[in-house]
Design goal:
With 277 residues, the protein is an alpha/beta fold. An eight-stranded parallel β-barrel has the order 1-2-6-7-8-9-10-11, surrounded by five helices. Strands 4-5 form a two-stranded antiparallel ribbon. A hairpin with a 5-residue loop joins strand 2 and strand 3. The longest helix is centred in the first third of the chain and has 24 residues. The chain starts with a helix and ends in an 8-residue tail after the last strand.
Amino acid sequence: MTAWLIAVVAFFATVLALFGLWLFLIAPKARKKEMQPFLRPYAHRGLWNSERPENSQAAFDAACKAGFAIELDVQLSADGEVMVFHDYTLDRVCGRSGRVAGLTAAELGKIPLNGVENECIPTFRQVLETVDGRVPLLIELKGESTNTALVPAVLKVLEGYEGLWCMESFNPMLLRAVRKQAPRAVIGLLSSDLIRQKRKGNKVLNFLLSALLLTFLCRPAFHAFDGHYPNRLGLRAGLKWFGAAAFVFTMQRQEDYDYFLAKGAYPIFDGFVPKNQ
């Protein structure tokens, strides 16, 4: 065998090996039967408006009454209670400084959402009592580190709850913990293009998350992707080649909602009430 032929063979062998490694890293684990009850649109942080704040009991009750499944966010208070709140700080929603993780559940429970006095930050337990199994829940696990203490706390609250629920997160380590502690749970990986968004933080980590190269850590059943960046290669491969289910965020117009729904991606929406589900 001549030297050039050896070089060609070595080149193609390397390409195939790298392609195989890429597939291993980005491959989700489709669970079509388990996904079926969850394949529907979701009201982003409840069916909120100017009178019903996001992630409030009123917004969740309104979504249930309208028949919309609910997406919500959970994180831990200073004393380890699971709270339903999106931001890590209170500034935007509550108009005051401080971090959710720096206050107790009792303290957080007295803070009004968007100035609505009778709607304060709820605990996850309170939200489950309000929803009471009426619609499925899409629970986003908040967390930017490798600390997975949130996972057992959330699973503990869910013990005995008879409604449908699944979990999602931008953090594959949190989903990995769910996979280990609740193997039958349906989980999904949230993602966006952090590079094009010029997000702060570790650029290498942002690239790995954007390219879905850490998917192997949790093998999600679905991808929940940013509707502004639907054509990332790892995402398309996970959906088309591996059969993962697709959710898309955040739809704020009926046209976008209809467009993605027609393509088989279930919208997570806010800012309007969709004409069809």
